[in-house]
Amino acid sequence: RRSPKNFGAAGCSHCSYGVVTGNCGYVLESPWYWLDNRIVKHDTHSVNYIRVRGSEPKSSSMLRASKSWRNLFYKSTYVQSSWDSTSAAASSDAGATPAASPSTAAAPASAASNVVDFKFPPEWVKRATKQLKGKPPESLKWETSEGITIKPLYTSEDIKGLPEDYPGMFPFTRGPYPTMYAGRPWTIRQYAGFSTVEESNRFYKDNIKAGVQGLSVAFDLATHCGYDSDNPRVKGDVGMAGVAVDSVEDMKALFDGIPLEKISVSMTMNGAVIPVLAMFVVAGEEQGVEVGHLSGTIQNDILKEFMVRNTYIYPPEPSMRIIGDIFSFVSKNMPKYNSISISGYHIQEAGANNVLELAFTIADGLEYCRTGLKAGMSIDDFAPRLSFFWGIGMKFYMEIAKMRAARRLWATLIKQNFNPKNENSLKLRTHSQTSGWSLTEQDPYNNIVRTTIEAMASVFGGTQSLHTNAFDEALALPSRFSARIARNTQIILQEESGIPHVIDPWGGSYLMEKLTAEVYDEALKVINEVEELGGMAKAVSSGMPKLRIEECAARKQALIDSGKEVIVGVNKYRLEKEDPIDVLMVDNTKVRNSQIAKLEQIRKS
C-alpha cells in the first residue's frame, strides 16, 4: 500500500465511501471526496486538484472528460463505481444540495438515509461490550457490496421522518395492491422449455395439474437468435437450453390442450419478438381465443440484451423501434397482455449488485417510456401494462429492500417525468426468479435451501409471480424430480407457512425501512448518471453499464476466490467425495433431426 506517483481521488471515509487509485494499481484510503463538482478535503472543504498519469494538475471538470482519467478509472484494480455516486452523500454532509438530472430529479428517500448513526443507550452499550469481551458494538457493523453499511442494531431513530405508507397507495413501497397476498397469493409461474414442443407440452400440463397457475416458456438459443433449427450456425444449440420453435405449427403443438383463455403465458423473447408473438396470437386464434382475451407477458427488453445477454438481432435504433411497435399493437389489441418485462434478472446474473440491477433496470424503463411516447402514444396508453423482472439472490435483506425501493422509485420518477392520469401507470408489477448464479454444481442439494431463502425474499419483497429454480440447473435442464421440489417450495410457502396472510410484514421494520431508503438513494444516483448521458440507449452505446457490471462481477468473484465470501460446498465445508446425481440429458442430434423433418414438410406444403 505505498503511495503511487500519479493518482486519482474519489470518496471519503467520513462522508461517503472512496479510495485513491494509482495507475500502478495500488489503492489507498482517501481523505478527499466529491462535492458540487469539486474535489475537496474533508477537514477543510477546500478546492483541490489531482494529478493523472504524470500530466499537469487538472480541475475536476476537465478531468471528467479526460481520456487519461477514463483509462485510469476503468483499468485500475479497484474502481470506484462513480464520481457522481458519491456526490449526493458528500453534498448532504457538507450542507449543500446535490445536483440531479433534470429528467429524473427526485428527492432522497429520507433526510438521513445515508447517515450511519451508532448512538445507543449507554446501558445497552455496556452489556453489548461485555458480551463482546471489550469490543464496541460498532465492531459488528458490515458493509454490503453496494457500499451500504449495515449496523448490528436498528431503532426508531433510524426511521425518523419516514412518512406513513400503505400498500396500494402512492408511492407503492409496500406493494402495488391494497391487500396483496392476503387477498390473492402470488402466481406460481415456473420457467421451462424441454427440447421439443411435445415434451414441453407434457411438462406444462403436469405442472398445471400440480398447482402451477401460469406458464413461462424457455426457448432454445436458436429460437432466441431468430434461426430455424436447420441453420448450420446453431447446430449444437437446438433444444439444448429450451424448446425449439420454428413455426406456427410448433407453437400450436406447444399449447395443445392448454386453454389459453384461462392460462397466462409469459415468453422470454427479445430479438425475435415479432415472429414469436405473432405465432402465439395465431395459436390462440386456432384455439378459438380472441387476441384480446390472451393474457401473459412478452419480455421484449432489448436494452439488457445489448448490456449482458447478447441475443439481439438488429442494431439498437431499429430494435427500439420494434419495441415501440409492440407497445402500440398490444395497447390496442391485447389489454390483458404485458408488452414488456423490463429485466433486472439478467443484469444480476451477469454480476451486478442490487443497486446496479435496480438502477439500470429502472433507467431501462424510463427509456422505454420515451420510446412509447415517440411511437405516438400517451404514457397511459402503455405504461399500465409495463412489467418488471427481478433476480433474487442470497442477500436476503438487500433483495427485499431492492423490491420495495423499486416500486417507490418507479412511481416517483414516472409521476415527475410523465405526469400520467391513470394511477396504474405508476404501479411497478413484477415477476421474480430465484438466482441461477447462486446455484452450485458442487453438493447440489444445498441449492434447495438457497432457492427457498431466495423465494422467501421475493415473497417478502412483494412479487406478483415467482419462478423457483430447480436444484440441478447448474448441471442440466431440470429433471422431473427437481422440478417438483422447486414447484412445491412455492406451494408450501403459500399453503403451509402463513406468510401470505399478513400484508408487507416488513413494513415498519427499523432495519428494512432504513435499508429501503438507502437502496433508493444509491440507485437514484446511478439513474441520474445514466440520464445525464442522455438516457439508457446512449449509456449502453457508451459502454458504461457493461463496464460497471463487469467491475462488480470481478470484485465479487475475487471475494469468493479469497474465501471472504463463503459458498458452502464450494470454498468451505466441501465434501471429500460426492455421489453423482441423475440429470436430464438432451439428445441434441435427435431433436434437431426432428425439427428439420418438420421444417421440410412445412416448406413443401
Description:
The protein is an alpha/beta fold and 605 residues long. It is 42% helix and 11% strand. The protein has helices at residues 60-64, 67-75, 83-94, 122-131, 180-183, 197-209, 221-224, 248-254, 273-286, 302-309, 316-333, 345-349, 354-374, 379-382, 396-418, 446-461, 480-495, 510-532, 536-542, 544-562, 588-604, and strands at 7-12, 16-22, 27-29, 32-35, 38-41, 47-48, 142-143, 149-150, 187-192, 214-217, 264-267, 296-298, 337-338, 340-343, 386-392, 430-434, 465-467. It has a nine-stranded parallel β-sheet. A three-stranded antiparallel β-sheet has the order 1-2-3. The longest helix is centred in the last third of the chain and has 23 residues, at 396-418. Residues 1-103 have low confidence and may be disordered.
Short description:
The protein is built from 21 helices and 17 strands. With 605 residues, the chain is α/β, with parallel strands linked by helices. Strand 2 and strand 3 form a beta hairpin.
Which key terms come to mind for this protein?
605 residues, alpha/beta, TIM Barrel, 2 domains, nine-stranded parallel sheet, three-stranded antiparallel sheet, 21 helices, 17 strands, 42% helix, disordered N terminus, cobalamin binding, metal-binding
The rounded distance between the terminal residues' Cα atoms is 73 Å
Instruction: Write down the overall geometry.
Output: globular
Number of strands: 17
CATH class descriptor of the largest domain: Alpha Beta
**Number of self-contained structural domains:** 2
CATH topology of the largest domain: TIM Barrel
Oligomer: single chain
Low-confidence stretches: 1-103
Largest sheet, order of strands side by side? 13-12-11-10-9-17-16-15-14
What would CATH call the homologous superfamily of the largest domain? Methylmalonyl-CoA mutase
Which structural category do the helix and sheet elements fall into?
A: alpha/beta
Helix content: 40-55%
Summed over residues and divided by their number, the pLDDT gives a mean of 84
Radius of gyration from the alpha-carbon trace, in angstroms: 25 Å
Count of discrete alpha- or pi-helical segments spanning 4 or more residues: 21
Per CATH, the architecture of the largest domain is Alpha-Beta Barrel
